[in-house]
Amino acid sequence: MTDYTATVTVRLKRGVLDPEAETTKRALERLGFELDALRSTDRYELDLAAESEDEAAERAGEMAERLLANPTIHDYEVAVERAEA
Amino acid sequence: MTVAVVRFGGSNCDRDSVQALSHLGIDAELVWHEDGLPEDIEGVMLPGGFSYGDYLRAGAMAARSPIMQEVREVAAEGVPVLGVCNGAQIGCESSLTPGAFTTNRSARFQCEHVHLRVENADTPWTAAYDEGQVVEFPIAHGEGRFEIDDDRLEALEADDRILFKYCDESGAVHDGANPNGSKHNVAGITGEDDTVAVMMPHPERVSLPDIGAVEGQGVLRGFAEA
User: Fold this and answer.
1) Structural domain tally of chain B?
2) CATH of the domain at A65
3) Alpha-carbon gap: A70 to the closest alpha carbon of chain B (Å)
4) What is the DSSP letter of B171?
5) Tens of pLDDT, residues B124-179
6) Domain with B179 in it: what CATH number?
7) DSSP secondary structure of B56-109
8) Looking at chain B, which residue has its C-alpha nearest residue A17?
9) Which residues of chain B make contact with A72, given a CB cutoff of 8 A?
10) What is the extent of the structural domain holding A66?
11) Do A19 and B64 touch (CB under 8 A)?
């Protein structure tokens, strides 16, 4: 078994309204910043031991499917790397 | 006829719901989620509140608690299930009903009275009303915007699974009468069977004469109708 860190990034699907991101963008503009768009994501870092990188990714993907993301409104991606000792 | 009103940590409309149901002569009891559903239960109400502090997404945690597996099982057997507000969010998160209730377009918590148009009066929950009738219910939510992909929304419309839409006083459905940005102004829908329903507005808050309005009674009477 090897220790891995799986990073699950959950974001709203394209086209789904993100009122919090809109509000944040407006606040940045009030501060004088110029920007065209702002998207927010949720990022979860999971430390887990697995036989392989693929197994770690598969398990993290299942966690995203079952809880971390809501497939109705979210897309997600999983990235796995060896945990730092 | 006994309806289990399921209480999670953070539920806050549970007692109101029991009181409103009892007033209508529908036997109702509070059930702590860890205790599981009582035997021979004849209805399940998922009340409003902030279960698990709305962590992750409103309703996400409660939807994955063991009692919801039991709720899905009895729902499949035809036992009526009604989710209101946080209960509606739990219903969608647990796949009892399609879609999701997410952050209001305003990004704010909204507590106000809204008008609803009855879209389908041929369900247990709306049998007391006429199709097209306008009722006034309160809403109190920060995550009540109904989201679903366009194909499934069209299917809900085609299958008459929309119970209520947000409308103006005259019954016209338009964006100006949409408090939270819900797609097609949807305020409540049924599951695959119309014995399962979820809605963001609160019928139990307009069901006691002492409160001043009783327009919500018809929804709660669905437990006796289903």
Assistant:
1) 1
2) 3.30.1280.10
3) 8
4) S
5) 999 999 999 999 999 999 999 999 999 999 999 999 999 999 999 999 999 999 99
6) 3.40.50.880
7) SSTTHHHHTSHHHHHHHHHHHTT--EEEETHHHHHHHHTTSSSSEEE--TTSS-
8) B105
9) 92, 98-100, 147-149
10) 2-82
11) no
